[in-house]
Design goal:
heterodimer, A: mainly alpha, MetI-like fold, 12 helices, globular, B: alpha/beta, Rossmann fold, 2 domains, four-stranded antiparallel β-sheet, 11 helices, 24% strand
């Protein structure tokens, strides 16, 4: 509501570009729902120690195994009697933050590689894209396995391994959008006014091509969460008993038929996260495009 | 035959410029030995049909020919007595926008759709005057926008919120905010309707006087040239075939047959003519170099010599014509 008051006081042109993007973003209801959902998930994960002590992640209580959600055990217990809530809260740290880090790293590296290849073209393009082709020719799970095997187990090594597997798709996407944008007349005009290559890429090409790439990045998040867990299932990266959303599902998959909450609850966590980030991405895409408002 | 006076007298001197495009299947000779000189504050019109090499010339001056394809084969481009060819990119970056600016043909696409127009004008200033404070720059942007007739209250708006004529004004504001000595206007009015054309030309005239910039107006519209320019270069197949003051080109009887043809193509209000007289034929294929005169195939006055020997430039009171027709008159004097 304060927004609308502000708008009356200030004419639209007095906002900076950043403020306008924020303004358009805030007007998008779905995006705001996404933000709140994402903040709620993040808050719960960060506040985990206040809700359940870390020891409960591993503490087995065989007598009370496979108890459904109820008093004292909000999310119930798994087949070893471990508290599902604690496992989900602490598991979220890995699922959420690692997958965000993976997407972030892959996005930026891919944008740099694809941007340079698309903008400069010629030999730079050939060189960079052949490297990307090499990355693409190896199945990403296999590539990640190879990297983790070479570097050793560990959360950050897992992040590195999985992000390398994602670089190729971002590089290709950014390159193709730069290829169409670099021939636009305003890019030529910017050259004529003395802008350097870096400035043209950052200020004129990226803002025009970033929308679809952001959306695709947010969609990839779900796939990344699941690939962390499939790595974990293979004993690479995060392995059981360390909790992680995907791992929780896979270690409980034997019991899911009769105790569906074991699959449904972590599944809902993954879905909420992916959905919220996707809403945010969609909202960002619209906010970046000045034509979508008014 | 070009005049050689004091170097510093000219702002821009292009000598014997050859530009070619190396495509996969052929070499396209876009500019073939073009000469041009421009004094400070002068308004020069470059006239010629599509593909004559006008835009290529402008891009050569800024050294923005498409990489790997466009190539300046030989010649020289001197700006304020300094050779531009072979200058490093860093030097050209400081030159573009600051000392030489360019206005593009289509204002619809020459503005970045994701940045507010104020920001885009601001950016040019920011690139070339990094030392000014933000408030000073903002003030200059406001002032410049006012000068081109855009209320500064609209500077936060985006290109799609403006009409074509207003966008072209914004492009002009961008081109002139760093007060360049030379403005290359590449068909600035072609994409606009006639009433807006007149406004834009008027605006350019006013601003030109204000900043005392020289203007190279690239166009195929002779009406615009007559209205705006001091001097005219008629370009055909990458060469200047006629050069002179506007009065000489439109007024005198001695004309290059091509110029004559161009003028005959204009509808006249004075004479009631049923049909226009277009120039027959097409421009020579720029992939082949021509032995004789490049206009010979389409010329009504074509003589045997035109097919075999290239014509030389004939000069009379600063009016230059590249044609064999004037060989005899020259000798008679």
């Amino acid at each position: 509501m304060t927004l609308f008051k502000k708008k009356k006081k200030k004419s639209l042109s007095e906002y900076s570009t950043g403020e306008l993007i924020l303004f358009r973003f805030r007007k998008n209801k779905l995006a705001m729902i996404g933000v709140f959902m994402f903040l709620a998930v993040t808050l719960f994960i960060l506040a985990a120690p206040l809700i359940r002590p870390y020891s409960m992640v591993y503490k087995q209580d065989i007598v009370n195994k496979l108890q459904g959600p109820g008093e004292g055990r909000i999310f119930g217990t798994d087949e070893l009697g471990r508290d599902l809530l604690a496992r989900i809260l602490y598991g979220g740290r890995i699922s959420l933050f690692c997958s965000l880090a993976i997407i972030g790293i892959a996005f930026f590296t891919g944008a740099i590689i694809g941007g340079a290849a698309g903008y400069f073209g010629g030999k730079v393009d050939t060189f960079l894209m052949r490297i990307v082709d090499m990355l693409m020719s190896v199945p990403s799970a296999l590539l990640a396995m190879a990297i983790i095997t070479a570097l050793g187990n560990g959360v950050w090594k897992l992040v590195l391994a999985l992000s390398i597997g994602q670089i190729a798709r971002f590089a290709r996407m950014v390159r193709s959008s730069v290829l169409t944008l670099r021939n636009m007349e305003y890019v030529e005009a910017a050259k004529c006014f003395g802008s350097s290559s870096l400035r043209i890429i950052l200020k004129h090409i990226l803002p025009n091509g970033i929308g679809p790439i952001v959306v695709s990045a947010t969609l990839t998040l779900g796939a990344v969460i699941l690939s962390i867990s499939s790595m974990g299932y293979l004993g690479l990266g995060v392995a059981s008993p360390t909790p992680e959303w995907g791992t929780i599902i896979s270690e409980n998959k034997v019991n899911i038929q009769y105790y569906p909450y074991l699959g449904v609850i972590p599944g809902i966590c993954i879905m909420l996260t992916v959905m919220s980030v996707n809403f945010i991405g969609d909202g960002l895409r619209d906010a970046f495009d000045p034509k979508s408002k008014n | 035959m070009t005049e050689k006076k004091k170097e510093s007298e000219y702002l821009l001197e292009v000598k014997d410029l050859h530009v070619q495009y190396n495509t996969d299947d052929a070499i396209v000779y876009a500019v073939n030995g073009l000469n041009l000189s421009l004094k400070r504050g002068e308004k020069l019109g470059l006239v010629g049909e599509t593909g004559a090499g006008k835009t290529t010339l402008a891009l050569s001056i800024l050294q923005l020919l498409p990489k790997r394809v466009g190539q300046i084969a030989s010649g020289s481009i001197k700006y304020q007595g300094e050779e531009l060819l072979g200058k490093p990119d860093s030097y050209m970056l400081g030159l573009r926008g600051r000392r030489i600016s360019m206005i593009f043909q289509d204002p619809m696409t020459s503005l970045n759709p994701t940045k507010s127009v104020g920001d885009q004008v601001f950016e040019v200033l920011h690139l070339h005057f990094p030392n000014l404070s933000k408030a000073e720059k903002e003030a200059k942007v406001d002032q410049m926008l006012q000068m081109v007739g855009i209320p500064s209250s609209r500077k936060g708006e985006y290109p799609h919120q403006f009409s074509g004529g207003m966008k072209q004004r914004i492009v002009i504001a961008m081109a002139l905010i760093a007060e360049p000595e030379l403005l290359l206007a590449d068909e600035p009015t072609t994409a606009l309707d006639v009433t807006i054309q007149a406004q834009i030309l008027e605006l350019m005239k006013r601003l030109k006087d204000e900043f005392n910039s020289a203007v190279v107006l690239i166009t195929h519209d002779l009406g615009v040239v007559a209205e705006f320019c001091d001097n005219v270069s008629v370009i055909y197949n990458g060469r200047v075939v006629e050069y002179g003051s506007v009065e000489k080109i439109f007024g005198s009887n001695a004309k290059h047959p091509y110029t004559e043809g161009l003028i005959n193509c204009l509808p006249s209000l004075a004479i009631d003519e049923a049909r226009l007289k277009p120039i027959g034929g097409h421009m020579v294929d720029p992939r082949h170099l021509i032995q004789g005169c490049c206009f010979a195939d389409r010329c009504q006055h074509c003589m045997p010599i035109c097919k075999t020997e290239p014509p030389v430039m004939h000069e009379k009171d600063g009016h230059m014509i590249l044609c064999h027709l004037y060989d005899k008159t020259e000798e008679a004097k």
